[in-house]
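quick one before i forget lol
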Amino acid sequence: MGGVIIVVLLILSIFAPFFSPHDYLEYSPDKSYRPPQKIRFVDAQGKFHWRPFVYDMKLDIDPMTYSRIYVEDTSKILSIRFFVRGWEYKIFGLRSNLHFFGVEEGSIHLLGTDRYGRDLLGRILLGGRISLTIAFFGAAVTVILGSIMGTVSGYYGGIVDMLVQRTIEVLQSFPQLPLWMALSASVPRTWTSLQVFISMMVIFSFLNWPTLAREVRGKILSLREQDFIAAIKEMGGSDSRVIFRHLLPNCLSHVIVVLTISIPELILMESVLSFLGLGIQPPMVSWGVLLQGAQRIEVIGLYPWVMAPCAFIVLAVLGFNFLGDGLRDAADPYSVKKS
């Protein structure tokens, strides 16, 4: 189940323009805070339609508060069609205007629009590219660096072990969230969005490895005293062969668990920092940047659909946790499956 969720999120993010019926970068002030349109099969007269449709939205004035509101125009049905032509985009260097779904006339916003009238669904899918990229890159560096440092520390011991462990203790002596916030705040505001994006990946990567390194060290300390390791050394096996062919594979299940835990942790951390304005900066889009529009309680009360990125964050976190459980059971020969 977790693997299916992750694959779906990856496909939606990579091919975001294809799944977005409207240009997510186009400003439309006349559609500001437009609510989500409901997919229907039965119209206001009770007639069933085989093809799904949505009602067009029209702007009106609330007679009590005199504020702008959108109401469904039940006289105008917008039939949803698949593989339609729309705005032009580019994926992997190829230009296209084909979209997974859309309407022939009018507009369709299944998750509503933001303050500037931009389609929220398309922006969430686009933001998934940044959030997932940071998480995958950070988790990969965490696993590689943590595994290497933990293995070297546990296998060689002595001065090497002391230096590595003292470095880990220094890094872990700082509260994690304030440390990440401080480093993120130190990024110059004059940097471009791309430079900030790269700096965020570096910060997330090199502050998340100490925990894994210490856990791998503990497992290496117990494994290096085993008889099969002594036998390999007596047969002339090199240190690199012992480490990469025998010690690290025996830590694989634990590394996989840490990897699948690190990815959702980094997604949450990026979202928190970007929400606070210390992470990814506009015009670059991530799930945390999209949540900046929900910082005020009155906005959430009037336009609750701006919280939609939270649903994708929750799905990603649950998906990686479920996937980690499955991979751990598959990689660990000592795991016991419960009936």
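fyi The chain has a mean pLDDT of 84.
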